[in-house]
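Margin note: ligand = adenosine-5'-triphosphate.
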Amino acid sequence: MQNIIDVQGLKKEFKSFSSRSGLKGAFRDLFTRNYTIKTAVDDISFTIKKGEMVGYIGENGAGKSTSIKMLTGILTPTDGKIVVNGMNPHKEREKFVKTIGVVFGQRSQLWWDIAVQESFRLLKKIYNVPDQQYEEHMKDVIETLDIGPLLDKPVRKLSLGQRMRCELAAALIHNPPLLFLDEPTIGLDVLVKLRIREFLKRINEKYGTTILLTTHDLSDIEALCERVVMLDEGKIIYDGPLKELRENWAEGKQIQFQFSEEATLEELQHLTQEHLVVWEKGESDLVWVASVEADETVISGVIGKVTAAKKIADLKILEISTEEIIRNIYVEGAVRHG
Amino acid sequence: MGKYIEMIRIRFLMMLAYRTNYYSGILIYSINIGAYYFLWSAIYGGKENIQGLSITQMTTYIAVAWMARAFYFNNIDREIAMEIKEGKVAVEMVRPYPYLNMKMMQGLGEGIFRLLFFSVPGMIIVALVFPIELSTNASTWLLFFLSITFSFIINTQINLLAGIATFFLFNNDGLIRAKRVVIDLFSGLILPLSFYPMWAQNVMSYLPFQGISYIPSMIFTEGFKGSQIYEALLNQAIWSLLLIIPVYGLWILAKRQLVVQGG
Ligand SMILES: Nc1ncnc2c1ncn2[C@@H]1O[C@H](COP(=O)(O)OP(=O)(O)OP(=O)(O)O)[C@@H](O)[C@H]1O
Ligand SMILES: [Mg+2]
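Resulting structure:
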């Protein structure tokens, strides 16, 4: 299948000027200014195919928004090559932006003082959407996002969640084949998040819309994206299936025992001395967690030894959550490959 | 084309939502016109005319200059500066339209609103209070409207220049304020240019500012006659075209070094 996004050796440097102190310093600033160069995006390359939903993740300041701004033609790259929808975003800006939809979670693109539907009407004119296509498509969008009752309210009177659903609808007025979402679920409650996820899945299935999404909420990624691109200090440190990331990192498993009689650390260590186990006390005196290798003989061995010696009320085998995996990666700053 | 008309309509609607702000504006403009009227009455004393303008023409000049200002004046320089500072240009850059043209249309929506809700009622009030002579000649009105259209274009282009300068200076409040004073002074809003010393008039004839206020007001008061009118309109038309060059030049440079603030 064809590549919707093709990025090669993309780089963005920001020059930030610093002021010298004092009057003399200010005077010197007039002639020569001190500046430092910050490389926000450092030589990244990737491609995205039609219909993919890709999660673009990384710590604060990793360079996610900067990359998105270059991909959408807002910023000029310092270096590198970008082809999106077969065009150079910055060079052919006006033609290019007709083929994409963008939502910046932290920034409204609706007009603040006028009713939502007036904004929609203006956008319809701007994107030159024919009446019939607009009616059909937007009716569906408005229904799925449940924003019908909000349409005649001015944007400034909407709550964050209400506004965000309208923003999403606004980004889709021209039904673009490619959607960029920069933190679309920031500050939203669980129900609104769920609705937005459902909606994104739906348009992805219905129209084959390609979606690139940044978020700090990994459950968004888990719900939507099969593939993640992980950025750290402007470099891509992982690009691949979310599943593989989990498998390579979630090597261990945790077995949680709830005993019906008291247990001590020495006792438990003694019981499982032939395996490599780390015991930790859980929420109460009766709950203990054994962290072990994800190996069947080890898991059944530990469970067998413990249950033979002590009465248990409950037993759970826990997987390490994606959240924990990502946290570990952020802490280590690199990805091990399997 | 449809998108431009829609944008004018939207801006008009926005202004309508805040129309009460404008009632006080009418009062302020009327007071201004009144103050200048009394000042000029004192200056004229018993004299029939000064620099070719009678006292009635002078009063009309002042009134029409202020009312025309309501049409050509807009705040898009400030708006552009704010959009840059707050990083809102990011949103503008993902829209399939030329940013500057759209800003100009927003200015036009604002201007049309003020012309209808501000200048017309304001002019009626002022005409009731002060001795003003409104031309009954249809062609004068026509030429006047043509002329204030050019005023709008020239003034807006200068505003665009001041706004785009934010890309380079980042904080250009001072520049915008200075620009405003220069325009009020050199455009002939406060004093008809024929009252300036000869050398100053010479200098100003090479600048675009007279096209903003002096020319339309002189046409309206019939201070310009015959070929003078057409020369003046030609001057405005040339400036309207000429200013496109620095506006686009600066814009191309600005886009290249655009830095969007905020995540
Ligand atoms: N206009 C700018 N001038 C200078 N440095 C900038 C500018 N914009 C961003 N940066 C720097 O570039 C780096 C990447 O910023 P970016 O906004 O892309 O991060 P991000 O991954 O989106 O982070 P977050 O998750 O916090 O939104 C940061 O270190 C930031 O300080
Ligand atoms: Mg960001």
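Residues A 64-65, 182; B 263 surround magnesium ion (ligand 2) (CB under 6 Å).
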